[in-house]
Amino acid sequence: MYLITVFGNLLIIMAVSFDSHLHTPMYFFLANLSFVDICFTSTTIPKMLWNIQTQSRVITYEDCITQIYLFLLFAGLDSFLLAVMAYDRFVAICHPLHYMVIMNPQLCGLLVLVSWLSVISLFYCTVLGVYLSSAAPQSSHSGAGASVMYTVVTPMLNPFIYSLRNRDIKRALKVITGVPVM
C-alpha cells in the first residue's frame, strides 16, 4: 500500500508538472496535496515496515519526537490544503467569470505558503501544551485500526479520488507514459 501511495501521488505530480493544460490553480493545489501525502506517509510507514520486518518496536526518543513533529506537520498541512482546495472550488462555482482573476498564480502561491505557515505556527503553539501536560498511560492497541486507516489508506486513495476519475489527468498520464491519446 505504501508503494501504491507514493507511486500514485508521484504520477499526479508528474502529470501536473509536465502537462501545460494542467497548470491551473486546482491542479497546483492537487500536486501540493500529493507531495504532502507522500511526506505524510513517509513519516511513519517505513519505520512501521522496519518494525514488522525486525519484530522490534524500539524507537529512540529523538526519532520519536522527529516522527511526531513531521506527522503532525503533514497531517495539519493536509487539512489546510483541503480547505484551500475547497475555497478554489467555491470560487470556480460561485464566480466562474472571475475565477482566473481571483485565483491568480500569486494568490495560489500565497495560499499554499499560508497553509505551511499556519500549520507550523499551530504546531509550535500546541507543542508547548504537550510538554507542559503530564503523560497519561494509554493502550497502544486502542486506536491502531483508526491509525492505519488514516495514515495508510486515506493517502493511498487520494490519487484515485481526486484525479484518476478526471479526464485531464488521464490524458496527461497517457502522454507521459507514451500511450496514444485519442
Give structural notes.
- The protein is mainly alpha-helical and 182 residues long.
- It has eight helices and no strands.
- The two termini are 31 Å apart.
- The model has no long low-confidence stretch (mean pLDDT 82).
Name a few traits of the molecule.
single chain; mainly alpha; about 180 residues
Summarize the entry for a quick read.
With 182 residues, the protein is an all-alpha fold. It has 8 helices and no strands.
Q: What is the C-alpha radius of gyration, as a whole number of Å? A: 19 Å
Distance from N terminus to C terminus (CA atoms, Å) equals: 31 Å
Q: Strand portion, in percent?
A: under 5%
> What sequence of helices (H) and strands (E) makes up the elements?
HHHHHHHH
Total helical elements: 8
Write down the overall mean pLDDT: 82
Number of distinct beta strands: 0
Estimate percent helicity.
over 70%
Shape: flat
What structural class results from the helix and strand content? mainly alpha
